[in-house]
Design goal:
7-stranded mixed β-sheet, 123 residues, single chain, mainly beta
């Protein structure tokens, strides 16, 4: 099994920035971030390919141009830089990883490993 350990998050005013990081204990093909607000469905935010030399990225439309996902293969970590944060970004952010050959940002069940989640609050 792959263990995911998240760090970062916190509280910030609208327009501010936060950064999240996720360290994986083993090999993956994809790593990404989902978020879930109380009473809402889990929503895909961003994903990056980790199993190839080419770090292809995918973003939800709601965060394009504001969030950037990146990877550090040497440390087996993925980071999410969140800029121009809005109150609507408030949620628990969960790191996800997949060893499958393909994933779908709209389908959480295509990811087989999950972190515990970290809170992001924008006021």
């Amino acid at each position: 099994d792959v263990q995911l350990v998240e760090s970062g998050g916190g509280s910030v005013q609208a327009g501010g920035s936060l950064s999240l990081s996720c360290a994986a204990s083993g090999a993956t093909r994809y790593m990404g971030w989902f978020r879930q607000a109380p009473g809402k469905k889990r929503e895909g935010v961003a994903v990056i390919r980790t199993g190839t030399p080419y770090p292809t990225t995918y973003y939800a439309d709601s965060v394009k141009s504001r969030f950037t996902i990146s990877r550090d293969n040497a440390k087996n970590t993925v980071s999410l830089q969140m800029n121009s944060l809005e109150p609507e970004d408030t949620a628990t952010y969960l790191c996800a990883a997949s060893t499958r050959t393909s994933v779908d940002l709209g389908r959480p069940n295509t990811y087989n490993y999950w972190g515990q989640g970290t809170q992001v609050t924008v006021s």
